[in-house]
Specification:
This protein is α+β, with helices and mostly antiparallel strands. It has 2 domains: about 350 residues, BirA Bifunctional Protein, domain 2; about 110 residues, Anticodon-binding domain (Rossmann fold, 3-Layer(aba) Sandwich), CATH 3.40.50. The chain has 17 helices and 18 strands. Strands 1-5-6-13-12-11-7-10 form an 8-stranded mixed beta sheet. α1 packs across α4, α5 runs antiparallel to α10 and α9 packs antiparallel against α10. The longest helix has 20 residues. The two termini are about 40 Å apart. The relative contact order is 0.11. Belongs to the class-II aminoacyl-tRNA synthetase family. It is found in: Cytoplasm. Homodimer. Keywords: Aminoacyl-tRNA synthetase, ATP-binding, Cytoplasm, Ligase, Nucleotide-binding, Protein biosynthesis.
Amino acid sequence: MAKTDKADRLKPRLPRGFQDHDTGTLRATRAMLETIGHVFERYGFDPVETPAVEYTEALGKFLPDQDRPNEGVFSFQDDDEQWLSLRYDLTAPLARYVAENFDRLPKPYRSYRYGYVFRNEKPGPGRFRQFMQFDADTVGSASVAADAEICMMAADVMEELGIPRGDYVVRVNNRKVLDGVMEAVGLAGDENAGKRLTVLRAIDKLDRLGPDGVRLLLGPGRKDESGDFTKGAGLEDGQIARVLGFVSAGGATFEETLANLAAAVEGSARGAEGVAELAEIGGLVDAAGYENRVKIDPSVVRGLEYYTGPVYEVELTFETVNEKGEKARFGSVAGGGRYDGLVGRFRPEDTPATGFSIGVSRLLAALSALGRVEDRTALGPVVVLVMDRDRIADYQKMVADLRAAGIRAEMYLGTSGMKAQMKYADRRNAPCVVIQGSDERERGIVQIKDLIEGARLAEAIEDHAEWKEARPAQVEAEVANLVDTVREIVGRHC
């Protein structure tokens, strides 16, 4: 094949805000997803899958700007001129799915799903345009017991993954309480919907920006480190003080926090309803023995507007070291809440729903920092070397026998000699190689070299001639015993 001219050669470039994932990461992710799924199934949730593309209108007003379909999401027009978008999250597609299949689904409907979501936003450190989420939702129950159960399930997921009690907390608040505060500062009504959303998103950045940064976002706006300016909510000083006062209403005890929240929403029936729901959730988690793992926290708001009641976040509290060598916390790795109006957009009546979403990549990074991620690249396939290219069929038969016995195996498909083939096997992390040249074939045997044990033994042999003579960890076996011998070697290293 002719070489490409340098002027025409493409530069390999990963698009900004996207990631490649290597073998070890993918296998560790798969193991983590299986563990999370087992916890969800233990609670009675069943899997479901929706496509990555939805009609843009199905995502609706909850996008950053519904008048510009490509603002915040990746969108395109179909051949019938209908706007389609890559899903922004997994919740809006679930709402569409439930509404479309409403009559045949059991209610409450308990489901879980995972997959990639897409954000057409400016990428930055730890902020990607494509990332994986793992969601669990209960649709069709208005009881706050469903919210309490989600919180308890989130705690169980953390512990099942090896995050010890005390290194995480499930923080709970209620959007009705925040609605009461909004009423108190004069932001009630549809005409203030945009400003309320700006306030919510500002408060949601409290753990990252601190009170001073949030104060700017509630007021005139804030310029970040790159020089980009984010327009603020434009609240007056008195309004900002009341909103920040609500956020800091957490007390030393559960009862004190509830009292502070009740004072913050005094005069608002909706706010009082939210406080009562928090009290009920507190009682339910206490009764189930989760009182030290689930905590009422007024600073939790969640940035999306479709939440209508309890909202929650899973925060990791243990310290780690960031890329600058500074002490840091991972912060939130999961969050969600009640969204009673989302399914109702497709139906004549409201359908209550609640659920939460786990940030898969962020949680995997946290598990890695805790040393809870196993090395998933340690053991590769057994490699059958090709010593005689006229005997490809014989080598392929060996590989087929190994695979039929459930052993991961491959035949070398390159064109290099034995030395390069051995180097290839090392790079594949092969536990052993199978060697059969003409001499071995005539004798009806194979040579099987344990690469892992051989590397260990070779450390004690300094002289190359001695190493060549000793052939550490290399055994001879009859062809009929190939599978049993390889299985024994692989078994030592599993």
